[in-house]
Amino acid sequence: MAEPLLTEADLALRPGHGVRSPWLREALAAEGDPPPLPGPASDMDVDIAIVGGGYTGMWTAEQLSRRAPALRVVVVERDICGGGPSGRNGGFVNAWWDEIDTLVELYGAERAVAAARAAAESVRAIGAWCGEHRVDAHYRQAGMLVVSTTPPHDDRPLGAVAAAEAAGVPEELVALSAEDVQARCRSPRFRGGALMRDGATVQPALLVRGLRRVLLERGVTIHEGTRLMRLRSPRGPVVRLTVEGGGATREIRARHAVLAMNAWSAGWRPFHRSILAWGSYMVRTEPIPERIAELGWTGGESIYTARFNVEYLHVTRDGRIAIGSGGGVPGYGGRIGPSFTDDLGSARRAAGAFRHLFPMLADVRLTDAWGGPIDVSGNHLPRFGSLAGGRVHYAMGFSGNGVAPSHLAGRVLAALALESDEPVTRLPMVGPPARSLPPEPFRFLGARLMRAAIVRREAIEMGGRRAPWPLRQLTAMPRRLGYHLGPAP
Fold first, then answer.
1. Residue 4: pLDDT above 70?
2. Which residues contact 423 (CB under 8 A, 6 or more apart)?
3. In the chain, what are the domain boundaries?
4. Does the reported pTM lie above 0.90?
5. What angle do CA 205, 325, 361 make, to 5 degrees?
6. Max alpha carbon distance in the chain (Å)?
7. Cys bridge to 302: 21, 240, 314, 322, which one at CB 3.0-4.6 A?
């Protein structure tokens, strides 16, 4: 497959370098660009301390403030709320029906369906919450398409369709012919695929900043620009968190603590073998509503391609196409550095994905490029649970699909912090991580090798050819080692 031609304007785009995502810039402008909330003025005693002001931490605080309004809840965020992945992600609000084959393999059909139904409930609950609290996050539930873009990938969507049928939920993921797909979006690259009805889209930063507003109205304390330096959970009823904010170091004493740090969890000792930080980049076009109408893409469906280095795209309310590529780079030892925000090559791959999928839009200008880290687990699904002692709770491993699952995580983490034994705490992804990733430097070196091999394999497959046997065996190595990562042979 020939590389798509990037325009001079595409090549001039520079991601990162201290510039926030366009989602977050728009959301902050709508608020009048408020200053960050200050760090703690003194040591604090609270009921529950939450580390992380993104979706997971905020949904946990939302659940707690609704279920137990008298609780003293504090959220500490090292940047501003929404400064991390919650303010820069693709805006996909998806359930797990497209992961049903993995869920069944790991947990059996009954528990797999229960988990997928819980995630689907969160898709709908987010929309209902936005309506109840007048948060205009551009929520639109119109389903999600997974599409093949080359003959070697035609069977991939159908495998998940067959797994859904075998699990007794054929209505949740429905096969589409090439004609069906073209009726929804006329990209010349799109072939057959599948439709998942439990899919929605949002402007992600408006959602997280809306959560922030609601929590402040409910009396939840939020400290921005405040970094967790140390956490101690000695025997007894108190967890001690040392935080730094506003040039001062303070101690927060809490009955329970929640760690909702997304990819930054990879740098903490209890989790450094559980997740790998990986980069993902996006671009978006200028507003082109008339051109999108010409594509027939007017139903609001989000789309992702059946590649391992997945391409994901949707139409924004103001008529832009926003498209991302998961082909970023892995990090070493849990460090989150410039490769996750400033990588020009990864941003250009996202631009190249747009040019490849929509050659008829060659004259359309790309206006923004940005990136950020995602937290990839060994089975490509998140894990929720508690550390030894039962007073420190965590969620991690969303693997690029965190908007709806983070709402589910908030329900789980709130229940754990309230010491409540309820059905959501017995979902199969609640408990210790099932399989550790290799230690460094083997994890980093292996991830880099696999990334290069998969990029090479998919370049061949995108040309319509089957990759050579040795390359297919190499890229299937993670699955042979027991991880649900990478393509099958």
1. no
2. none
3. 8-426, 442-480
4. yes
5. 95
6. 65
7. 314
